[in-house]
């Protein structure tokens, strides 16, 4: 079974400036690249630290422009050595940390994308229906299904809402984290006036969402009279709890849907996921985070 391409677990920049090399205590004759960020969910996190200088990979020296020798008179980006390996193979790095050389190693893993990339590999067709509101996790296969008709990749991306498009370049900061989308609204009198589609849902009754399964748990265990769904940009959907539970079967029957959730949403909470870490939801801080809450600010190699 295909398991993906190994990710280094860190992001680097070139080190061609003499002043920067001196600041990092690089000795004369040494070369390498500067680590500017590590993926907190990767095996590299802890072994490799921000401001480390990577001098070589598996014994192959790295030039200050981030390249390694490939063949005579040919050079490639040093990450090709990593991506040529298999998942769970070890990588060995020589580092310079505060002027001292050290060696580290760790098993390579595929990048745990915030937005899953491959259908049936890291993307599963999950859904939840609450009062006619259809929720699903954001994934590349989902975007391909919704926006993939006609034209090239560029024209399709132009149709994707900006907040959704922005999430494609974000990183996970917690295990199991997802971007939850309100996909569409199945019309019914209890959701009259709400016409949103393909918009991130960030909170439920004041709790920041960790994942779709987190939303399932919050909805199922809600004992409040109203269900409040906080959408990207501070928008809010409010439904009466009693009306939602009463109208649920009718909405499903009208739309010929057999269940209000996908089978995977019936599974228990994964033990390695900390839903409480998502915290409370505040519209001001959420907007400051770019409208998607506690998500890493830029993509890492992988």
Automatic annotation (TrEMBL):
UniProt-listed GO biological process terms: proteolysis
Secretion signal, residue range per the UniProt entry: none
GO-annotated molecular function: serine-type endopeptidase activity
Listed Pfam families: PDZ_3
Keywords assigned: Hydrolase, Protease, Serine protease
Protein biosynthesis listed as a keyword: no
PANTHER family: PROTEASE DO-LIKE 9, PTHR45980
Stated name of the protein: Uncharacterized protein
Organism: Volvox reticuliferus
